[in-house]
Amino acid sequence: MNLNRRAREAQLRAISIFTQRPERAQVVNRGSAEVRAGLCCTYEQAGHRLTLDMPGTIGGSDEGPSPGYFGRAAICGCLAIGIKMTAVRENLHLDTVRIGIEQDWDNRGVLAMEGASPVPNDTRIAIEIRSSEPEEKVGEMVSRALANDPWFLAYRDAQPVSTTISITKEIA
């Protein structure tokens, strides 16, 4: 079966189920990250595991990409997939979707140095689409995709985040 048609049919099936039973659309994603010695971190979720680390220049071991790498991968991948999902659902043919990201940082911020923010100073996203579809139709579809893209919106818009802290004593 054509992969685009398969994606479209799966989405339409999910939409039908969620329309009839909205509670089936409610999910909770759980994951955890752990750092032991040094700055190398292991993140686990749903049977998948990945390693994150910081560069050696700020005390890491370079055993994996930095957390920022995965943050940028999340927004780029989510945008590319979300645009393609929207296109196949709307029967628009896209040959390729490529998302580029550039961020300006002041690395003093991650070190909690005074006068510097730990968040990007600026984030620029470039969306490149190859398609024979009319440019106006593709542009309108991309606008709809952006309006419903979770990682794009999470970067762009503030949202509530809660934390809990639990401290346990080491037992000798």
Give a brief description.
With 172 residues, the protein is α+β, with helices and mostly antiparallel strands.
How would you explain this protein's 3D organization?
- There is one protein chain.
- About 35% of the residues lie in helices and about 20% in strands.
- It has about 170 residues and is of the alpha+beta class.
- The strands form 2 sheets. Strands 1-2-3 form a 3-stranded antiparallel β-sheet, with no helix packed on it. A two-stranded antiparallel ribbon has the order 4-5.
- Strand 2 and strand 3 form a beta hairpin.
- Helix 2 crosses helix 3 and helix 2 packs across helix 4.
- The longest helix has 23 residues.
- It is globular.
- The relative contact order is 0.11.
- The model has no long low-confidence stretch (mean pLDDT about 95).
Top keywords for this entry?
172 residues, alpha+beta, 3-stranded antiparallel β-sheet, two-stranded antiparallel ribbon, 5 strands, 19% strand, globular
